[in-house]
Amino acid sequence: MFRIESKxxxxxxxxxxxxxxxxxxxxFSIIKLESVPHIPILLAIFVLLxxxxxxxxxxxxxxxGMIDGAKSGMGAVFIFFLIGVLISxxxxxxxxxxxxxxxxxxVTPHFFYSIVFIVTxxxxxxxxxxLTTVATIGVAFLGVSQAVDASAAITxxxxxxxxxxxxxxSPLSDTTNLAASIxxxxxxxxxxxxxxxxxxxxxxTLVLFGVISPQVEQTQFPKVEAIKVALEKMDLIHWYAWLxxxxxxxxxxxxxxxxxxxxxxxxxxVLLSFFHSGKSFAEVWTILFSGFVSKTGNADVDxxxxxxxxxxxxFTVSLVLLSLGLGGLLFSLGIVPRLFEAIEQYLxxxxxxxxxxxxxxxGINFIIGEQYLSILLTGEAFKHQFEKVGLARKNLxxxxxxxxxxxxxxxxxxxxxxxxxxxxxxxxxxxxxxxFFCLLSPVLTILYGMTGWTLTKK
Length: 458
Fold this sequence. Notes:
This protein is an all-alpha fold and 458 residues long. It has a domain at 75-313. Helices cover 72% and strands 0% of the residues. The protein contains 23 helices and no strands. It is globular and about 65 Å long.
């Protein structure tokens, strides 16, 4: 968005006042009114248009700024649509159900917190949704924790850690795709680069949960077994269901375009589904658009598997376009450039630039309570600065995930924090100290920024 020409140069005080007004408007709407982000963002756009009219900036110029901002996200829009289709096709082929079933086979009473972390991580990686993982398997594990007399707070911390590891690293995740696309980085390049901070955080977290796990000799896992039985009855657990995932990994390792990779994996999943689904082409087309609907009668399984479809991505796509339009307007009115002029003198080094981006993403999460906006606004604001200090953009996309995606569940008034507390019945402030993965990720990314470890030059 730094390519968007500024039509005005506001004073620093005016830029600060407008920024505070917009943040306050969005924060109040999301936190106090529990609104979805779309409407407050639209209102913020109207506030800026009013300011621009007061400054006698032509409406056409402001419209062009919003359009240029939205254009920068069109690559993400197409990828989001393909993700929705891919999820549906992988439900039909049995790929996602088979991954979930295999994850449940890992469940044992030994090292309970570590097992909870690993299983939720695998399932989160498979379905690409942290909140769905929490609302289904997470709820099941919390029930198991009561049966084995384990800490609900620590169990919730393990669930959140695993779910957001999966969300962060899955090519099916909207936040992962958003972080990559917003700064113009190839999806699989972004995921590979994240491994440098995420893998150490994963293993440190695994060890910590292993150390504090309760000593449980034997117990039963009736709810887990009920989910496995329901999955078996759906006739979606097959050895060949792993093949679409294998194809996805092969294509990503060969650095094939994400659009081609997602499309081919989707087509392969659909073709495999004809071996067992018995659905007609018309039914398959409907599922690819509207999503897969599970009707097993088991509420946990149905909630876990009813997902996907191109239509399911409309919420994210509309939010992306509105947010980018807001960002384009902020740039065309000169507000963001003016703010960065004020702090640019302090961002001359790599370490301070990475730290500033990380704290900005964390700050937006705490001020606004929305992880999408923390990624969008921070990504757009710091693209130019990362290039200026000689860093490749994939360093920024990694920072956005390390300090943006995984922080929202730690915010009591954040969208994820509120949802998780409602689902698990554990207060955010109680499980946050035990969400080790979420706590370690921003620490490692800032540490790497200060030392220069694993950073890639432009």
